[in-house]
Amino acid sequence: AQTVTQSQPEMSVQEAETVTLSCTYDTSESDYYLFWYKQPPSRQMILVIRQEAYKQQNATENRFSVNFQKAAKSFSLKISDSQLGDAAMYFCAYRSALFSSWWAKLVFGKGMKLTVNP
Amino acid sequence: GAVVSQHPSRVICKSGTSVKIECRSLDFQATTMFWYRQFPKQSLMLMATSNEGSKATYEQGVEKDKFLINHASLTLSTLTVTSAHPEDSSFYICSAVPGQGADEQFFGPGTRLTVL
Fold first, then answer.
1. How far apart are CA B60 and CA B62, in angstroms?
2. Which of A33, A43, A110 sits opposite B109 (nearest CB)?
3. Which residues from chain A sit within 8 angstroms of residue B105, using beta carbons?
């Protein structure tokens, strides 16, 4: 079974600075997707960024980028120019891509609380 | 973007009663929906996978008879908590997948259940 580990339960960053959230995972599969989700105090889950395992290029979405190290099974999220609105719980998640006709479930890490200090 | 709604957003009920939570995909058809449970300051725990027109697949440890899931149409899935007890109090979140080839699932805003 796949597992996702987020070892840092909490982090804080100063507004406008950069912070990196770590995530490692374990799988024997070669084809999969990795995600970072944000859950603000409203509790609405928001997709931040997605990475396909077969792509060597790291995904980027505006201020958010990932460092995907497939061999090391590491998937960290970098938030640049942190804003107060970035304060939230962040969850790393894994999804198998083996079954193209059936949507496999997401496996979530335990989450990490990010505080942004003004 | 794709929108998923949940109703109600909050519900308080007495112990022993049943509560139904609805999950609707508003602007797309969802062949698959997922139901999660989230305790305070914890991660999402998958309860079951719901496919339209077929029985839900429950995760290990989730009581099928207690958490009844019905995916009656391509836009609606319901979770019924039967004979609710205080330990069932939690935040319940659904998500929906637009169909084959979709590379993203969309989450509802969640339902906070409090059982007195």
1. 6
2. A43
3. 103, 106
**Residue A84 burial (C-beta neighbours within 10 Å; 0-12, 13-18, 19+):** exposed
Tokens of B81: 């908590």
Under the banding of pLDDT at 50, 70 and 90, the label for residue A56 is confident
Is B93 an interface residue toward A (CB < 8 Å)?
yes
Backbone angles phi, psi at A67, to 5 degrees: -120, 100
Number of CB pairs, chain A paired with chain B, less than 8 A apart? 43
Cis peptide bond N-terminal to B8, omega within 30? yes
**Which residues, including other chains, have CB under 8 Å from residue A81's CB and lie 6 or more apart?**
A16, A17, A18, A63
Q: What's the pLDDT score for residue B100?
A: 65
